[in-house]
Amino acid sequence: MTPFNAASAHYTRRQFFGKSALGLGTAALASLLGGNAFGAGAPAGRRAVPGLPSLPHFAPKAKRVIYLFQNGAPSHVDLFDYKPKLREWHGKQIPDELTGGKRFSTMTGNQTARPVLGEITQFAQRGKSGAWVSSFLPHMAEIADDLCFVKSMHTEAVNHAPAITYFLTGSEMAGRPSMGAWLSYGLGNETEELPAFVVMTSRDKEASCGQIFYDFYWGSGFLPTKYQGVAFRGSGDPVLYLSNPEGLSREVRRGLLDDLAHLNEIKREDFGDPEIATRIAQYEMAYRMQASVPELTDLSKEPASVLEMYGPDVKRQGTYAYNCLMARRLAERGVRFVQVMHAGWDQHRNLNTQLKIQCDDVDAPSAALIKDLKQRGLLEDTLVIWGGEFGRTPFLQGKIDDVKQWGRDHHPYAFTLCMAGAGVKPGFTYGATDEFGFNAVQNRVHVHDFQATVMHLLGIQHEKLTYKFQGRNFRLTDVHGHVVKDILS
């Protein structure tokens, strides 16, 4: 073998493309670091980090999104979708024409007796809009005229992880970029001091539900890992290793990072691996967050009236209330996408007890976030989303005479999601279900339609934000999705 052939045998495809695109790679690296390849002398203050030059496609109504994702699926027929027929039919077998041929989870898939279960709450029409909201959500009921209710959501998935993955990535299978990653990639960020995409998680105090927060709920999929969500922890430092080791000054840290960036750049030139550029960018972000995060998490200047609005848990790190307040503080500091996930909405055998507890956990903080944004003028360009991955069955899981273990199973065929803020009609109800709340029958909205609408509000034509992977142009909405124009203000 000649020396040339021997060298070629060890020359990988990645190295070839890396070597042949050094000029482009260096430009991309500078863009990743906000125009400063190694961070030395980085200007202080808030400066935008650009996304794709072609975006937005048109003037956006929203600059940022706060997604209050309710893991486990809130019961639409107990909270938002008032159906008198359920009380009328309570204890009777639900009509077979509704359930025939439908797929349910294994918990009720073979259950032959499916008695209708009337709502366990009390409904009333709220505000000038007359929206139906349950007595379990009194604070959200107070802001009904700020909310846009979509009561005709439907999906395909019948189990939690695939259904959540579907909402957040556009596919039931893990591995696609999450919504926040797509938006970080396409639109960039309003600040270089904090990540474009931040995730916070919490769960019910009773730990009644064993759901897991998988990393792929905020992953970057096949996009560069720079765009994945940064998960803030529920205790201690929000991000691991953010603090300098004892005896290491910020100035010394700066010098170490500069030297490390130069070494990583040499490696990147050798191999052309975009993940090396990501690593450099992440080191830089961590350095900047050393200054920005302590200020972010310092609540000493928050007015007492604001803290009271979020509820008694607002100062307790890791709670839903704390995360909602952090979401507002992140939004006003320029973070593009904040994903707040709260697990516990999974009342299979404890509907009569746990649903009220779960509502108490999230009701005041959810409403407070919207009120807080509104009074600060941020709701005008911030889209707030509240909802889960599917609904709950109008029929009972279990036996009608076993009241202590009443529950509802997963229900993909109809459920409610609500939004507030930038670009959506306030005090508006869109779509409807049948008289049992079983099927979405009027102005049906699919998961991909919802995703297309969110992207539209951010100035993105969902068909045009794509990324080529394995020979195909992928997008968040896969090959589906229509903008729901009737809910746009």
Describe it.
The chain has 2 domains: 63-238 and 317-346 and 355-487, 3-Layer(aba) Sandwich (Alkaline Phosphatase, subunit A), CATH 3.40.720; 240-296, no CATH class. 33% of the residues lie in helices and 15% in strands. It has helices at 3-9, 13-19, 22-32, 76-79, 84-88, 96-99, 138-142, 160-169, 179-187, 250-271, 274-296, 304-310, 320-332, 351-375, 447-457, and strands at residues 64-71, 123-126, 131-134, 147-154, 197-203, 230-232, 337-343, 382-387, 391-392, 410-411, 415-421, 428-430, 432-433, 440-442, 445-446, 467-469, 472-474. Helix 3 packs parallel to helix 11 (274-296). The N and C termini lie far apart (70 Å). The model is unreliable at 1-44 (pLDDT under 50).
Notable traits:
disordered N terminus; 2 domains; Alkaline Phosphatase, subunit A; nine-stranded mixed beta sheet; two-stranded antiparallel sheet
